Amino acid sequence: MLLDIDNAYVQYGTSVMAVQGASLTVREGELVSLIGQNGAGKSTLLKAVMGLVPLHSGTIRFDGSPTGGRSFSTVRNRISYVPEERGIFTKLTVGENLRLGGVARKDRKAVAEDVERELERFPVLRKYWGRGAGLLSGGEQQQLAIARALLLRPRLLLLDEPTLGLAPIIVDLIFDALVRLREEGVTILLVEQNAVRALEVSDRSYVMQAPGRVLGCGTAAELGELPAVVDYLGFVP
Ligand code: ATP
């Protein structure tokens, strides 16, 4: 098991528990999605994996090691995270942003090759290579954010709502890229509100319901057998 979240609870300050006993696993090479409505706790669970919010209780293990301790490094373990707000440096150029993704690596030649591969994957980044990243459209920035995350050669790629607010043609482009990445063997945990599309491309999905609980998990066909999930989603996967 590459990622193993067991009975995780996360609380913001003294307010409600955003995640309440969620368990989730991702095996190497899988594309797993986490779907569910606003406020279900999906983003919080990704942040907990990254150590951006502390666990109240439960455990998160990456490749067998607990992620909570000070000695755990997401960079050293090559966990890449694209937050919902993308984290692009708007004052830097597209090229500078992209290169930053590989800054923790020592294999400079391989980094240069990977940059080239990402420019082939997302040609718009080559077109706007020298342009300030703040001038890109939302969809272009999302492609930049994903490409930059891939430059770490991630063992696990965490994506938070990569298609939110984007034009349908760009949504297609992003989902196509995810399918190709999965074929390349990249392990992905995808948070997505577009349940239909997420179920289509994923090996397995977890359905989360507020407050912070996993309602069901499995392949689309397996989820379709769970009445509570079908009720919640409003369709049979
Ligand atoms: P969305 O798609 O809207 O991001 P989500 O399923 O990812 O939904 P979270 O963002 O994880 O849900 O939010 C889960 C709960 O935690 C919500 O009730 C939300 O209001 C609360 N929450 C999220 N971030 C914070 C924060 N920084 N401080 C306090 N409460 C928060």
Automatic annotation (TrEMBL):
One of its GO terms (molecular function) is ATP binding. It comes from the Bacteria. The lineage of its organism: Bacteria, Bacillati, Actinomycetota, Actinomycetes, Streptosporangiales. Pfam families: ABC_tran. The keyword Chaperone does not apply. InterPro entries: AAA+_ATPase, ABC_transporter-like_ATP-bd, BCAA_Transport_ATP-bd_LivF, P-loop_NTPase. Belongs to the ABC transporter superfamily. Keywords: Amino-acid transport, ATP-binding, Nucleotide-binding, Transport. GO terms for biological process: L-amino acid transport. CDD domains: ABC_TM1139_LivF_branched. It comes from Actinomadura viridis. SUPFAM superfamilies: P-loop containing nucleoside triphosphate hydrolases. Residues 3-236 form the ABC transporter domain. This is Branched-chain amino acid transport system ATP-binding protein.
